[in-house]
């Protein structure tokens, strides 16, 4: 509500005096007794207090955030709407620019590089499978082979289903034990306090109760998984 109230307050202070007087003549549409002080940026309901704002959000299932692309008639269009549209276009431009930069900084790995990885993997009896160029998983994959150390550094994705959490480990050396990798997540003494709290169901459980599963790729959708 603090965000909505501040938005509403600033809106009231910036609107023309005539519109402010018009709002002053309205009653709160929630309690229908007090004079309206705020107007919800999303559903446009008038309210008089924090309690009424909260009640209107619960009753109407409204989040209080203005819908930036909502239609506004010419008669109701004001300088505030113009400023809001201008800021919206600025946000779109920034997002487009950011996406363009991201595409440049994440160029797809060439087939030559992938073939190099497959050749090195074959030497270590590793069957390496890759996705075609253009797939998001391939673009994000940071796996590489260190010629100097003669070992792979893998891109790992860790999923903790009971906490609905996902974490990515980039470039993990192939000789690092899995227990050491997970220690930073499930060990309450070694994990980050924020991660520890998010994975509480794991950090408070005995390590013998935690099972580590690996996803089986390229399985038919209708196949039956053996127990």
Counted by DSSP, the helix tally is: 9
Which series of helices and strands comes N to C? HHEEHHHHEEEHHH
Sheet-strand content, in percent, reads 5-15%
Largest sheet entry:
3 strands, antiparallel
User: What structural category do the secondary elements indicate?
Assistant: alpha+beta
Number of strands: 5
Instruction: Based on Cα principal axes, name the global outline.
Output: elongated
Question: Strands, helices and their partners?
Answer:
Elements: H1 2-14, H2 17-24, E1 38-39, E2 46-47, H3 50-60, H4 79-105, H5 111-123, H6 136-140, E3 144-146, E4 151-160, E5 165-173, H7 178-186, H8 193-198, H9 200-203
Antiparallel strand pairs: 1-2, 3-4, 4-5
Quick overview of this protein structure:
The protein is of the alpha+beta class and 227 residues long. The protein is built from nine helices and five strands.
Characterise this structure.
The chain is of the alpha+beta class and 227 residues long. The protein folds into two domains: 100 residues, no CATH class; 99 residues, no CATH class. Helix content is 42%, strand content 11%. The strands form two sheets. A three-stranded antiparallel β-sheet has the order 3-4-5, covered by helices on one side. It has a two-stranded antiparallel ribbon with strand order 1-2. The chain is elongated and about 80 Å long. The two termini are 50 Å apart.
